[in-house]
Specification:
178 residues, mainly alpha, 11 helices, elongated
Length: 178
């Protein structure tokens, strides 16, 4: 597909039917999803902006990474590597909140008093949990947890075997060996 696309820019009249049938075959009859996705991308690129397609596919010197990422007026300007890591870490810590939806820490969209109260409650909860774990012995903690299964009562001791039965067994074993 790459070679045919590059050849199209050198000899468009001769290559157009071949490229068209190649795109049709790859888009409609190809089982390889990566190849199909690349064919769809190339097709849309040729359809929307043939000059940009020439710069990208043929690899002219004027092709820039920004031109590759800009399509139909939507341009990727910020990459995740360039974002503020501290901000992302705050959002991850506040995962079960609206921070993920707003893509901002809580302090940006909640009142300051509410954020402080939430932070205080979390700190108190963490300290209570740490104190509970510290004060509770490890053995007692496993025995008293509500999710632990109750300990079954010990099995009764087996009844003693009568001596006559044991002697009969020994006699029968001696007879079998002679």
């Amino acid at each position: 597909m790459n070679s045919t696309s590059k050849l199209f820019f050198k000899r468009p009249g001769e290559c157009q039917p071949v490229l068209g049938s190649l795109f049709k075959q790859l888009i409609t009859g190809c089982d390889n999803c990566d190849l199909r996705a690349k064919a769809v991308m190339y097709y849309n690129l040729f359809k929307s902006n043939p000059e940009l397609a020439r710069e990208i596919i043929a690899g002219t010197e004027t092709a820039s990474p920004i031109a590759i990422l800009c399509t139909k007026g939507h341009c990727i300007e910020v990459f995740c590597e360039d974002e503020d890591n501290e901000r992302k870490e705050k959002i991850v810590r506040e995962f079960n909140t609206f921070s993920v939806i707003y893509e901002e820490p809580q302090e940006k969209f909640l009142k300051k008093e509410l954020v402080q109260r939430i932070f205080q409650e979390e700190m108190e909860s963490d300290s209570r949990e740490a104190k509970r774990v510290k004060d509770t012995p490890a053995v007692a903690a496993t025995a008293t947890t509500p999710t632990a299964a109750p300990t079954p009562a010990p099995a009764p001791a087996p009844a003693p075997v009568p001596a006559a039965t044991v002697q009969n067994l020994l006699v029968s074993l001696e007879m079998a060996t002679h």
